[in-house]
Amino acid sequence: MGIRKLGYIGLNVTDPGAWADLLGRTLGVGITTDKAGPDEVALAELDAFKYRLALHPAAVDGPREVGWIVDSPRELDRVTRRLTDAGFAVQEGSADETRLRGATRLRWFTDPVGYRVEMAVGETKVRTSPARPADTHPGVTGLGHFVLAGPKLDELRELYESVLEFKLTDYRAPGLYFLRCNTTHHSIALAHAETPSIHHIEIEHGSIDDVGRAYDRAQANGVPISISLGRHMNDRAISFYVRNPSGFHLEIGCGGIEVGEDWIPHDFGASDVWGHHHADANPFASPAS
């Protein structure tokens, strides 16, 4: 009940064309367009629904909103009361915002590090299946998770765990927490950083072959691979990371595990089973790394 899944992420981007090129040539993701006020926004076709990733033209790159799908209007009201009781000011989304999201109801609030967090009821399915390159089986399948880093880690944990009712799946010292709102291992991870940022967004693929082919296309297209191919210790996903045109990472992955109600949160120790070598310093490396 309550929040059911990660629905979409909106980004302010200074170079929508470079984003479209990355998504299209490397990941085989098509782009549609819609209006957001006077501006044209690019919408990435990650699955059969209207969009999961929106690219808004802007003068500065950065997160615009994170959207969570809520089960029903009744649950939206219940979660709203929990947020209000915790001191968050919840506002109604505008008619234009609700239409763009493909939702029937939309509310939003500002999280402890200043980001807009939305709660949407309803999703609009606009295609039977997205077009993909001939060598994908099935290619990109959707939006997986994101990692939010910021200076108010305790407050962020309080928001997501105590107010929004996410469950802690696992964690790693010195301060990296993986949270879930369904059986997927995690839909969000929280980490400490001096300034708020999204460390990465993960785009789900249907098979290891799809991930491998995307890796080949990234190399052929000169896309900067920021973290090499590897397998995570905690969710067992196989993935690699690229540096996107806005400067943070996109994780290209598959094979993450699901967890049940009997799962016990734990410190999973080493970050990876193998691989995942960083081109730059890892900001979340454990002291023993």
UniProtKB/TrEMBL annotation:
Transmembrane segments: none annotated. Signal peptide: none annotated. One of its GO terms (molecular function) is dioxygenase activity. InterPro entries: Glyas_Bleomycin-R_OHBP_Dase (IPR029068), Glyas_Fos-R_dOase_dom (IPR004360), VOC_core (IPR037523), Xdiol_ring_cleave_dOase_1/2 (IPR000486). Pfam families: Glyoxalase (PF00903). It comes from the Bacteria. The keyword Oxidoreductase applies. Keywords: Aromatic hydrocarbons catabolism, Dioxygenase, Iron, Metal-binding, Oxidoreductase. Its cofactor is Fe(2+). Belongs to the extradiol ring-cleavage dioxygenase family. This is VOC domain-containing protein.
